[in-house]
Amino acid sequence: MLEVKGITRSFGDLQVLSDVGFDVPAGTLTGIVGGRDAGKTTLLRILAGLLDADDGSVLLDGEALDGVDLQRVGYLPQQRGLYPSMRVAQQLVYIGRLHGFSLGAAERNTHTLLEKLGIADFADLRLDSLGLGDRQRVQIAATLVHDPDVIMLDAPFEGLDTGAVDDIIEVLGGHAESGVPIVLTTTELGVVEGVTDNLVILQDGEVQAEAATNELLVPTGRFEIEASAGLDWLGNVSGVTVDELDGNYARFSVADEADRADVSQRVLQKALGLGTVTHFSAEAPTIDELARTTAV
């Protein structure tokens, strides 16, 4: 288990983190969600042992992190740090060796990760020859190649397509199943729904909410729909308020909580009767909404 207790950090007169605390149980994935200036990167650097806190402590399996071998930590920084001119597999093996692995073990871990992340064909290519999504997969492999006991990822899904996100989530899920606590940061609540076990909402350096993901991401009554036929009829559906309408795309709300399931299904069925529905989803609450309505 990773335990974060009362972390406070300032830079000069600017307080970036104030009494931040939460737990990440073994085998679970916790998402730290907040805006651009919430303090997420500073917090993750402290958790990874790369930056000292002014106050507070971080424990891994009951041991203070400053007494833990940092080789046990897998950390993906927001500013990626691999060598662009090195070949992919060569770089991963090198990182494994730096963490004390034998050549054979580093090569085996490298091969396994490249296969799982769908980039085995790029093993002999230079990193700077790959696209953004594939470079990010290599970065994830570099974070995991030494089999860390705790994993910390700063904005791992930023700028990635769905395929890359799915591959990374699958690999992280395997590590969680083996008992590793995992922490990741993001600015988007939609990214963590269905991926994380728990959420920490960080705003202005303070924890505004902490709970299981399914407890925090309660339905908002807002929906998105995209269909092949026009959606001009949407405003005529009883119980629906159209928030945005642009040709084949619309956002709408159902204010009455008791009617949301029935009304949204009527909208979906009518759209299907008129043509193909390419997207239909319920919107998650925003970070600001969670901060206003939920307390630690």
Account of the 3D structure:
This protein is α/β, with parallel strands linked by helices and 296 residues long. It has 2 domains: 168 residues, P-loop containing nucleotide triphosphate hydrolases (Rossmann fold, 3-Layer(aba) Sandwich), CATH 3.40.50.300; 72 residues, Alpha-Beta Plaits (2-Layer Sandwich). Helices cover 31% and strands 29% of the residues. The protein is built from 9 helices and 14 strands. The strands form 3 sheets. Strands 6-7-8-3-9-10 form a 6-stranded mixed β-sheet, sandwiched between helices. β7, α5 and β8 form a beta-alpha-beta unit. α2 crosses α3. The chain is globular, with a radius of gyration of 22 Å. The mean pLDDT is 89. This is ABC-2 type transport system ATP-binding protein. Keywords: Antibiotic resistance, ATP-binding, Nucleotide-binding, Transport. It is a peripheral membrane protein. GO terms for molecular function: ATP binding; ATP hydrolysis activity. One of its GO terms (cellular component) is plasma membrane.
